[in-house]
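ARCHIVE CARD
CATEGORY: sequence design from structure
SOURCE FIELD: tokenized fold
FIELD CONTENT:
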């Protein structure tokens, strides 16, 4: 099968699938280049309220397919551009992880807002095996996610970390029994899709450390009907119908 990024949109949830089964879903240069544009299109789609990133079959992503690079391409730059596009996606993002989540796979997973994994998944950040300096932005994102001690553990050793350890380290939000990942992701994304996009968008920027748009979000909240709708729905014991969109 060709190496490609597949995507679908259903019930407010966009699902992007890293598909390169011959190489455990390793990202080719073309896949790295294609991801930012794909994300831009999904971000602009009003039908999309949540994005799920996953891998085809039993593996999330085993890193970068070095053999796909041309001599003048910088694999780090390609990966960082895709990672930053994913981190900047304006709606909630969730990595649904099975099997290997290594190298560039961990880089993509760390750029998502949330990470759910199935038992048996493995995680690793492996540049120390190749003598590569891990990108500064990626290192800082990893340290912000798991703390400096765990980030150093992963980067210094390049050893794989099991799913239970990844949960303890804070890399994962949830760890599911075998066969339960898809069901739980579907349940949780339905919850996310039903919530206020105003709340989510503001919270994402605040939690990610952005400090230059506090006034913007105060203005958006004042102009939006979401708060009044949320209160009315609570008092009337019905599901709210939020209308604010990015």
């Amino acid at each position: 099968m060709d190496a490609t990024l597949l995507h679908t949109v259903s019930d407010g949830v966009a699902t992007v699938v890293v598909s390169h089964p011959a190489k455990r879903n390793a990202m080719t240069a073309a896949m790295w280049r294609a991801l930012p544009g794909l994300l831009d299109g999904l971000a602009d789609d009003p039908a999309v309220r949540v994005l799920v990133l996953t891998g085809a079959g039993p593996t999330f992503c085993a890193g970068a397919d070095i053999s796909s690079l041309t001599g003048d391409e910088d694999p780090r730059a390609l990966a960082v551009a895709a990672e930053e596009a994913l981190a900047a996606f304006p709606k909630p993002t969730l990595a649904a992880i099975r099997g290997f989540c290594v190298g560039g796979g961990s880089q993509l997973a760390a750029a998502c807002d949330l990470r759910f994994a199935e038992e048996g998944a493995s995680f690793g950040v492996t540049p120390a095996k190749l003598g590569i300096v891990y990108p500064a932005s990626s290192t800082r994102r990893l340290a912000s996610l798991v703390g400096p001690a765990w980030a150093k553990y992963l980067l210094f050793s390049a050893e794989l970390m099991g799913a239970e350890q990844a949960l303890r380290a804070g890399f994962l939000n949830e760890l599911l029994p075998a066969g339960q990942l898809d069901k739980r992701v579907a349940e949780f994304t339905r919850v996310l899709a039903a919530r206020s996009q105003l709340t989510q968008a503001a919270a994402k920027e605040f939690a990610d450390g952005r400090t230059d748009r506090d006034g913007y979000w105060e203005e958006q909240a004042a102009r939006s009907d979401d708060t009044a709708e949320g209160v009315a729905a609570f008092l009337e014991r019905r599901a709210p119908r939020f209308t604010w969109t990015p």
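CARD ANNOTATION: The longest strand covers residues 4-10. The two ends are 36 Å apart (CA to CA).
SHELF: design records, drawer C
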